[in-house]
Amino acid sequence: MIDRLPHEKGFHVSWDQIHRDARALAWRLDGKGPDNGAWKAVVGITRGGLVPAMIVARELDIRIVDTISVKSYNHQAQMEARVTKSPQEELMGDGTGILIVDDLVDSGKTLELVRKLYPNAHFATVYAKPSGRPQVDTYITEVSQDTWIFFPWDMALQYVQPFRGTD
Ligand SMILES: O=P(O)(O)OC[C@H]1O[C@H](OP(=O)(O)OP(=O)(O)O)[C@H](O)[C@@H]1O
Ligand code: HPA
Ligand SMILES: [Mg+2]
């Protein structure tokens, strides 16, 4: 249970919002692949990248979708990033023609690690914080470094008190 926020601000993203933003990301990437504009495959960085990866693959009609597992946070505490599952080696090569998608880039540690493995891949995220921006090739929305982004898969609807309170 998270009982304390280390950051001052919260940016709450709904399913509808992530769907719209991931679609906008797909449209921005359309026709930008190295093979006559085409992309070879989409690779989602688990777990957060899987939702935008699916939406991008759907929009761009890419049927080859793989995953790379990188764990770099335990709740909101950052730790050393490590790869716990790799995508298919024959598919990846040096990353040429591969779209690697994540939900966000924060410090940039996750993408930095994946970039070392696939230097020619194209790195795309839906959201980006300033420290991670050098690691990402294409993104949709920038938020400040002291903002924590809350994704819909980590939230639930719940009752809130009226503004004026109750008797
Ligand atoms: O730029 P960075 O500072 O490395 O942070 C960004 C990464 O952190 C989060 O993943 P997390 O490791 O929490 O795993 P998850 O996607 O499974 O939630 C997020 O989904 C990005 O992948
Ligand atoms: O702002 C964030 N929100 C959710 N997960 C994250 N992982 C790193 N930064 C964030
Ligand atoms: Mg992640």
UniProtKB/TrEMBL annotation:
Binding site for 5-phospho-alpha-D-ribose 1-diphosphate: 47-48, 102-110
Biological processes, Gene Ontology terms: GMP salvage; purine ribonucleoside salvage; XMP salvage
Keyword Nuclease: no
Record-level Gene Ontology MF annotations: guanine phosphoribosyltransferase activity; hypoxanthine phosphoribosyltransferase activity; magnesium ion binding; xanthine phosphoribosyltransferase activity
EC number: 2.4.2.22
Pfam families reported for this sequence: Pribosyltran
Membrane topology: Peripheral membrane protein
Binding sites annotated in the UniProt record for GMP: 106-110, 148-149
Subcellular location per the Swiss-Prot or TrEMBL entry: Cell membrane
Binding site for guanine: 106, 149
Keyword Transmembrane: no
UniProt superkingdom: Bacteria
Record's catalysed reaction(s): IMP + diphosphate = hypoxanthine + 5-phospho-alpha-D-ribose 1-diphosphate; GMP + diphosphate = guanine + 5-phospho-alpha-D-ribose 1-diphosphate; XMP + diphosphate = xanthine + 5-phospho-alpha-D-ribose 1-diphosphate
Subunit structure: Homotetramer.
Annotated protein name in UniProt: Xanthine-guanine phosphoribosyltransferase
Species in which this protein is naturally found: Gemmobacter aquatilis
